[in-house]
């Protein structure tokens, strides 16, 4: 292959999502400048482990006498894929929607899912031909044939390594055929992505060693493990650390009420010992907010449908705290009354205190 010069960049990110990591999020982004015109594409897609598209947004754009952009959004409705097409140019914007039934399009592979499929085929070293449906940026369906060649030793960009090859032929309804040849490592790393009908080719970063089996592979050590050994980085860390400590110390010195507020909360927490600390904390500090919000905390536990207020209000010998928003029993109230800040933070109704006093005298 003759020498090429870079005209842009291409980035692919795949990560597992979902409660059991059985779904995938694919993010593909590219940008390039051709003949003085800047353009690019973006794909954000989510899919299942069975290569079913859950949702995808794909955008292609170019700046040529203004912005020209095409977007296709694919989502799932009851029994079909809902497709929304948007076209934007300098003086016009149009939108079109259509539905694709699951029955007739069960083998639809979106562009985001295509990335997952190619990586999977490389990992299992599949040999043969597979046929699926694909959808273009204009919403047109086409037939996609994946011709898979098992890994073989070859020279690629000056490296001798095992290369898995996939040639994808996209056959449109008007008879047009587009061919794309992709080279991957046995570990599903894309080495080269070649659109055979256009003079552009996607190649792996030349600074990266593609031979993942080599013991001398060039790898960047994660900063999380070695940053403290870097003198410059460690110095910046210490500067920032002491700067933040000074800021917090100065703030607490100027606002002693914050320290008192935290002390009150800790004291209350140790005395009340609520079953659900998160609910307790929310209710405690919500009383000090200018505009208290309604917090929905019932989802913190799957079978937890009672609030902390009801937990602390089971006994009749309770009194309501206007600051914390909780009912406190007589024993707890005695502990609170021994602290120096009780008189400032809690005001009880007179009839409630009389009731507690009479009842406690009967118990003695």
From TrEMBL:
Q: Which domain of life is it from?
A: Eukaryota
User: SUPFAM superfamilies recorded for this chain?
Assistant: Dimerization-anchoring domain of cAMP-dependent PK regulatory subunit (SSF47391)
Q: What is this protein called?
A: Ciliogenesis-associated TTC17-interacting protein-like
Q: Which Pfam families does its entry note?
A: CATIP_N
- Enumerate the InterPro entries for this protein: CATIP_N (IPR048777), DD_CATIP (IPR047501)
- Where's the Ciliogenesis-associated TTC17-interacting protein N-terminal domain? 5-188
Matching entries from CDD domains are given as:
DD_CATIP
